[in-house]
Predict the 3D structure of the following.
Amino acid sequence: MTTTTKAYKFFDLPTVTLDFERPDPALVKRAAAFGTATLHEAGGKIGALSSAIKPMHASFAIAGPAFTVHSPPSDNLWLHRAIAIAKPGDILVVYTEGVYEHGYWGEIMSTAGNAAKLGGLVIDACVRDGALLGKVGFPVFARGLCIRGTGKDFAARGWINHPLLLGDVTVEAGDLIVGDTDGVVAIPRAKIETVVQKSREREDKEAETMRQLTAGQKSLDLYGWDK
């Protein structure tokens, strides 16, 4: 069982998985050096989450293992549960069954996320306290802002660390999540090392292309598009 400060009652629920394999922190650090677009393209155009999911402050950036949460709609109890048991560096990745128009997260939860040393939040829904999220400094990526409150239904079923389907992208616990001003990408854990290596090769190639463009060559000629 994952070591935590308390054996919470919900640990016994069949929808809760505590143990999963996380990527090597050194590999996460290498991946964080690349932009999301580069990782997406280098991986074979995989893992791009909806373009509606954006950083809630221009300074926000994330890179870390996915800690997945399937939350009942209009309810954020399972997010509080996730904060309590996720490990430092984990990125909470949250699906709310397509019910976006609630503020599932705000200043209080961001403060709790910082205290737990989590890596950030990616939620396919809205949050609130927009003016305060940047001040708290916990990286939040969401669809937007909504002031509608959420409930705490203790009888509602949720899931922790089971696969999520976000649009056309499946995210599993332990996958690599990277977010920046362009958006969010999810890289399957088994492919991280390959994607990082191909990202390095892609950036080196693009640096040479930009050198040639600066020297006066035309993109049509460099790419052979003059047909």
